[in-house]
Amino acid sequence: MSLKTLFIASECAPIAKIGGLADVTGALPKALKPLGVDVSVILPFYKVIKIKKNKLKLVKKNIPVIFNRKKESFNLWKTFLPNTNVPLFLIENKKYFSGKGVYVESDASSGGSEAEAGRFLFLSVAGIEIAKLMNADILHCQDWHTAIIPFIIKKEGHKIKTLLTIHNLGYQGIYPNKLVNKFLGTNFPEKNVNCLKLGILNTDLLNTVSKTYSREILTKKYGEGLKKILLKRKKDLSGILNGIDQDRFNPKTDSSLKANYSFSNLNKKKENKIDLQRILKLPQNQKTPLFSFIGRLTSQKGVDLICKIAPFLVNSSCQLVVLGKGERKYEKNLLKLARKYKKNISVKIKFDSALAQNIYAGSDFFLMPSKFEPCGLGQLISQRYGTIPIGRETGGLSDTIRHGKTGFLFKEYKAEAFLRSIKRALKFYQNEKEWKKLIERAMKKDFSWKKSAKEYIKLYRKLLS
């Protein structure tokens, strides 16, 4: 059975990365290829993408599409995901994919502006054209940016099958109907058009990125206003846990680190801790418990709880490191704490992949007090590096952290509950024998894509059967 599958997404690591979506689209195809899937990735040729000319091949020039009520065109380039044989196709159109970054809006959350609408609706239309040119069997749409594809395919009567992966139901791609009707030549009467909703209603199959989250989104609490339509598609909905690229995230070989290590030489991990403290100008002490957070500074990620428990960490002679960007109020609060407690707290308001690796390796604990978490990658990476996660019992955190065995979980979304978990974790830290056992169990967990890739293949076969 042919499994000619095209991934289509707004970002893909390491070519164009903002969040966890990029890690998935960069790693899952790499795991599917050796299992016999003829998989490729489609991505906009953003201005920020830097690829040497000798590694690029022009596949076809001036491919026509009808968009924005007129004839538009794009050039199609081919390269490969670095160090793989997975083809990467780049859509070049300077009108829609120019600008400084991957997203037009600062938080890349849910569309809204005309520029953002134009960007991702054009990506969707061009993606369908590429699928037709390549005689693809399946278009695997990633999140809201390309969720309107199944609707367009059904409307135009194409035979391509679609799978929609929901990475975060909170982000839905909602645009005024005037914009969508103008760009796509549709006639939506409702005031706003919800791309993710259209995708859920029209895709052949859909999945989320963990089993627990696939159950949670069928409830009012986590359904983000889409509970009813998700219940309609319940039999077509599955949950497949995200993995991580274990070649890329490997403390034995990670070139970003001061010292490479495994469980058999954990003293080398301590060298990374000292190096991280040096980089961030924190007092250098191997014995100081070091907590960290890497991610978007949003309410979803529980940043308000981190702000609330920060004084306890300071009073307990701990250190806290935060790396990320997001809502201005959280950035301000965290920077204020860092100024007040210079010897204990370091906050970097940016995305920095090399520093992130230093933090994963150099920390003792990794904080993930999320309100909801579809899957989460931070807790998978941190365990790989022997850094113990403390997370809320929700979504993928429930599926990947074994309470008291590889990390710590708390139920209620309250600072008090979070704090109880932190105190319990510190007791383990103070018991060297138990602490080593905890790290060993965490580092031995297999969070590769091997198992999940096979589950995706089952969905592809189901689509074509």
What is the approximate shape? globular
In the sheet with the most strands, the strands line up as 3-4-5-2-1-6-7-10-11
Helix content: 25-40%
**Span between N and C termini?**
9 Å
Count the domains.
Answer: 2
Residue ranges: pLDDT <50 for 5 or more in a row? none
Which band does the percent of strand residues land in? 15-25%
CATH class of the largest domain: Alpha Beta
Named at the architecture level, the CATH assignment of the largest domain is 3-Layer(aba) Sandwich
Provide a quick synopsis of the model.
This protein has 16 helices and 17 strands.
Q: Can you offer a commentary on this structure?
A:
By secondary structure, the chain is an alpha/beta fold. The chain has two domains: 4-243 and 450-464, Glycogen Phosphorylase B (Rossmann fold); 263-444, Glycogen Phosphorylase B (Rossmann fold, 3-Layer(aba) Sandwich), CATH 3.40.50.2000. The protein is built from 16 helices and 17 strands. It has helices at 20-32, 114-133, 149-156, 177-184, 195-202, 211-216, 227-232, 267-279, 303-315, 328-340, 353-362, 378-384, 395-400, 415-430, 432-444, 450-464; strands at residues 4-8, 38-44, 57-67, 70-80, 87-92, 138-142, 161-166, 174-176, 192-194, 205-208, 237-239, 290-294, 319-323, 345-348, 365-368, 388-392, 408-410. The strands form three sheets. It has a nine-stranded mixed sheet with strand order 3-4-5-2-1-6-7-10-11, with helices on both faces. Strands 14-13-12-15-16-17 form a six-stranded parallel sheet, sandwiched between helices. Helix 1 links the parallel strand 1 and strand 2 (38-44). Helix 8 packs across helix 11 (353-362). It is globular, with a radius of gyration of 22 Å. It starts with a strand and ends with a helix.
